Amino acid sequence: MEAQLLTESKYVRLMQAAKDVRTSAYAPYSHFPVGAAILFSDGEIVTGCNVENASFGLTVCAERSAMCAAVAASKKHPLAVAIAGEEGKLCPPCGACRQFLYEFNPQMTVVLEDAAGLIGYQLSELLPAGFSADELGEEKNKCKN
Ligand code: THU
Questions:
Q1: Within 10 Å of residue 134's Cβ, how many Cβ atoms?
Q2: What is the 137 CA–ligand 1 centroid distance (Å)?
Q3: Fewer beta carbons below 10 Å: N end or C end of the chain?
Q4: Which of 94, 98, 113, 121 to mutate to test the pocket of ligand 1 (most atoms within 8 A of CB)?
Q5: Rounded to an integer, what distance in angstroms lies between the CA atom of residue 38 and that of residue 18?
Q6: What is the pLDDT of residues 15-67, one digit of tens each?
Q7: 135 given a catalytic annotation
């Protein structure tokens, strides 16, 4: 993976938003709270946290919960996502979340943090050859917005 050191204040703010929402996580089973914050071109940030369930497989990750909230607010073109898990350790997005976010912008920046600071990846590096509407072939099945 092609890691890039990030120092810009917009990424610092984005990571702070991810840490803030992490306090709302519902993680009584894993005790692993996660927060995600997604940045849009108008500067707006939409956040989400992980939401677990006694039926473990129903757990929703922070990244997907944030992206769902964004779509509900008519925001479908994310520029960057910051993910905050355990303090001082990287919390790379799971495979399902990589694919979920790929739908909306394969080029988006994924902002992570460890003890050394913020690092960024392009989503398409984290998910090479992700599945997209292009693979569906039939024009009528493709999303128009
Ligand atoms: N989790 C996330 O919310 N995002 C990730 O990127 C990795 C994992 C959550 C799912 C589960 O609630 C907990 O972290 C432990 O796997």
A1: 7
A2: 32
A3: C
A4: 94
A5: 8
A6: 999 999 999 999 999 999 999 999 999 999 999 999 999 999 999 999 999 99
A7: no
